[in-house]
Amino acid sequence: AAVIVGGILGFAFSEMQKGFGGVPNYASQNIQIPVEGLQAKINLAAVDNKGNGVVTPLSAEVKPGDGKILINIDKLNYWTDTQQSMQTARDVAERITGVDMKKVDLIYSLKTDNATLVGGPSAGAALTIATIAALKNKTLPKDIMMTGTIEEDGSVGKVGGIIEKAAAAKAVGAKLFLVPVGEGTQVYTKPDERCTRASGFLICETNYKRIEVSVGDRVGIEV
To answer: Which is nearest to 158 in space by CA: 17, 3, 57?
Structure first.
């Protein structure tokens, strides 16, 4: 799927998914960041504390500075792990682009009308993509969304709530939803209880059936 995307989104996601064992260390680049800064926007898919998929816009802005990370969060209740993801996203973006992040400040803005939105590490990959796009002054496609953690080594890690996030992405017009390797199919167990009567007693046995669900088929979006 990442190959279809093309440009910065497909390149960065596929490179991060390999892990840094397959990603070169780029030489430090002296990219000139204008005083007014550069900005990239991306939609984040998440699951709120009621189990519903939600989407919130994120903007990543870079300005000349000394390596600070500034966070502008509106009505977001659970954000500590999101803050850690932002720090990791900065480090990974520096490794991939070769930009010296000690010379720029990052401003991440998350806004939502849903006060119960739950932040989490599953935004890490999208945060990294947005950071890379801002540094390279690229515009990300609006009809492509993604989910996945970002690890210190640059790999994209697995997350939960894939079906709910995919449904939320589709609801806002996304045509393609990128997920960590192996999570395009979700596996569930369904209890199957059978009872029989013997000598006046009711004897029940529960077996669990393995059910595989294709996220793309279930939601109706390319995954």
So the answer is: 17
